[in-house]
Design a protein that fits this description.
Order of helices and strands: HEEHEHEEEEHHHHHHH
Shape: globular
Strand order of the largest sheet: 1-2-3-5-4
Number of domains: 2
Radius of gyration: 26 Å
Oligomer: single chain
Distance between the termini: 106 Å
Number of strands: 7
Helix content: 55-70%
Number of helices: 10
CATH architecture of the largest domain: 3-Layer(aba) Sandwich
CATH topology of the largest domain: Glutaredoxin
Length: 267
Amino acid sequence: MPELHSTSSKAQSALPEKKRKMHQRIRPWILSGVIVGLLSGLVWTHPFVLFPHRIEVSGVQLCSDRPFSEADARVLIEDTIQRMQAIPDWKPSKGLSAFICNSTWRRRLFFFPSSKAGGLAYYLLPHSFFSGGDIALNQLIRYDGQAVTDERTLSYFLAHEFTHIHHERTVGTWRFHRTPDWIKEGYADFVGRGDAWERSTAKEGFLNNSPEMTTPVIAPYLRFNLLFSYYHIQMGQSVESLSMHPTSREEAEATLMKALVDKRPSS
């Protein structure tokens, strides 16, 4: 019995030693995680240090990790501000900034986990990040290095993301994230691109389900723009009202389809 008691005592005394060694091994990882978290938070809230090339025009800051012509940047920002005038009484939020992430590691840092997005907006800061950009040509550069060469210029993308920031600040975070995509993305495209209702090709494309009205599948922006334009301009519903009392995409499309069919001249 005494031998058993001695063995048991040794086993019990070994337990705290194992715990101590385990804590010693884990402590550096925990400390590293805390440091990385703090540094990440600092970078996210104060990213300017990583974007040394900057200019501010009329309260809008444009920041890039590559040099650019001040004249080209002014033209781009002024075009962005002109697009934003689609929002009555719009003024830049304090600190409104656009960050152009041309380098791969910056894209990975600021676009995680949405690595293929062209732009991301964070209304609390208020910052928006872009996957890359040719400021002289006013073109967005995608994650794969290809330039967007259609009518959606870099200033369109800035206006698009700035609209998300304005929208979220107007209705609040909780309401904004409960708003259907056709309203959020339709509004942003409406401001960035213009009123799709004024395009006869958009209305015909909607009726015929043309490719430009169905792509990209995750968010067919021109289609959403047409839906938003119909409710906002033709039916007179405010952005706040649409967000407070949202209609489903299915119901909105059915309503728009009926309106367009009824307007068609009878054969």
